[in-house]
Design goal:
By secondary structure, this protein is α/β, with parallel strands linked by helices. It has 15 helices and 19 strands. α5 packs antiparallel against α9 and α10 runs parallel beside α14.
Length: 485
């Protein structure tokens, strides 16, 4: 559904057939403007019959006007306001409505000053659809008329919400594309379009990566007819001092068959999602550019396709990574860490960032551990971990920290190379994957987010309509907003 927002100076509800009222907790009717005493008395009579189990109720005021009441709890959190917006979308989508009006002034009295922004963000994110390949599309435009003043939503805050929405939508669109469309080359073309937002986009093709010694990343794509790439996205909101940018690294495996270590056929179609970490990085950088963030940030994404073929990497191969370490490839389906190995060490050496946060749909083990409620967090820095955790709590994109330890680390030692790409001793699959990545970080504060359980969802919960979620864009925006802007 396409949501169109219109602002109107008038506060008169009479001209609109469907009117939304935000009321106090337990549907208390106080200080309702633009309605007669008779109408307000009718509201109260209706509410006497309500059991208060729902946050949204509706009734006909007369033959021409429908009233929708939304219950706003006292001291409501921003994330709960967004959930309320998502709940409101579910409420209207199954009803024969195409336009309504609402005034947020009463809601702002007992909640956050940005109530309107958070409510509309939740509504818009829940309304996301990816239907560009449907031959018949529904004309489902829905108009919302905001009456009266813009309810303390400043131009700056309005831009912030717009930037987050567009960043998440960009990430969701990338993840939702079929793999025959979004191969690494097409992905590069889409990232190049970000230049119009003031983002510096640099593309490293296979020839350039070979000269740099990125054999770990290149090995993953050897079996594919599609070329591999590494792309950097640089946003400089503080051009006076470009040193020590914040850096974000994403796994971009556009399709993962497992390579020679072939995956089972069942659900392999979901492996188009294996580039979700890179999509989040791209969405984040786009959102920072849209809102003209005053910080400097760099996104680095490794874009490959992991296919079996006559030239494909084999189990047992040894490759030398960008940082000079040798890797014994025991399983070609543990390919994401091979991509990230070169991307991480390249990012650290080239940009000397304040921190590095990588995002990847890295292990199925993290889904077994945490399901679809938390992303796995691994880090060499307690302060950075705590900041990420608290930011996740604020926006309901939760993370849970798991341990890194020398005893796990030694499970990744290879008898014939510096490191092996899987742990054959069994267990701790997500932890040992993170231990592998840590081998390619020297001194920089670093955090790894394993988002395999969070990048897409079949359940359509919270702000997600089902499918690609864009998990991580809001989390990292909140982290930056809280500590670096």
């Amino acid at each position: 559904m396409t949501i169109e927002i219109n602002y109107s100076i008038t506060q008169n509800s009479a001209q609109f057939a469907n009117y939304v009222l935000f009321v106090e907790e337990n549907f208390k009717i106080n200080n309702i403007k633009n309605f007669s005493n008779t109408e307000i008395s009718y509201f109260k009579d209706v509410l006497k019959k309500n059991d208060f189990k729902k946050n949204i109720i509706s009734f006909d005021l007369n033959s021409k006007k429908k009233i929708i009441l939304i219950n706003v709890k006292k001291n409501i959190e921003n994330s709960d306001i967004e959930k309320l917006g998502a709940e409101f979308y579910n409420f209207i989508k199954d009803r024969n409505l195409n336009e309504l009006s609402m005034n947020f002034e009463s809601a702002n009295k007992n909640s956050e000053k940005d109530f309107m922004g958070h409510f509309l963000l939740g509504l818009k994110l829940k309304s996301y659809e990816f239907n560009i390949y449907k031959s018949k599309k529904k004309n489902n435009l829905f108009k919302i008329n905001i009456l009266g003043k813009k309810n303390n939503l400043t131009n700056k805050n309005e831009l912030k919400f717009k930037a987050i929405e567009h960043g998440i939508t960009f990430a969701r669109d990338l993840v939702s594309e079929p793999p025959n469309v979004l191969n690494p080359k097409e992905y590069v073309n889409r990232l190049l379009k970000l230049k119009k937002f003031g983002i510096k986009v640099t593309v490293y093709n296979e020839s350039k990566m070979q000269k740099l010694g990125m054999n770990s990343l290149l090995g993953v794509g050897r079996g594919s007819a599609n070329e591999s790439f590494l792309v950097t996205l640089e946003w400089y909101g503080n051009k006076k001092n470009k040193k020590s940018p914040l850096s974000f690294v994403g796994k971009g495996v556009c399709f993962d068959t497992g390579g020679i270590s072939l995956k089972p056929a069942k659900f392999m179609e979901e492996m188009k999602y294996d580039m979700a970490g890179s999509a989040v990085v791209a969405g984040l950088i786009k959102s920072l550019a849209i809102r003209k963030s005053k910080i400097n940030a760099v996104g680095v994404v490794g874009l490959v396709e992991n296919m079996p073929g006559g030239n494909a990497q084999r189990p047992g191969d040894i490759v030398k990574a960008y940082n000079g370490k040798t890797i014994e490839v025991l399983n070609t389906d543990a390919e994401g860490r091979l991509v990230l190995a070169d991307a991480l060490s390249f990012t650290e050496k080239k940009f000397r960032p304040k921190f590095i946060i990588d995002l990847a749909t890295l292990t199925g083990a993290i889904i077994i551990s945490l399901g679809e409620e938390y992303a796995g967090l691994f880090s060499n820095n307690d302060d950075l971990s705590e900041k990420i955790f608290k930011a996740g709590e604020k926006v309901n994109e939760k993370v849970w920290r798991l341990p890194l330890h020398k005893n796990y680390d030694k499970l990744m030692d290879s008898p014939i190379a510096d490191v092996q790409n899987i742990n054959y001793s069994g267990g701790a699959g997500s932890i040992t994957a993170a231990q592998f990545l840590q081998r390619f970080i020297e001194k920089t504060p670093w955090a790894h987010l394993d988002i395999a359980g969070m990048a897409f969802s079949k359940k359509a919960e919270n702000l997600n309509p089902g499918g690609a979620t864009g998990f991580g864009v809001r989390l990292l925006n909140q982290l930056i907003d809280d500590h670096y802007e």
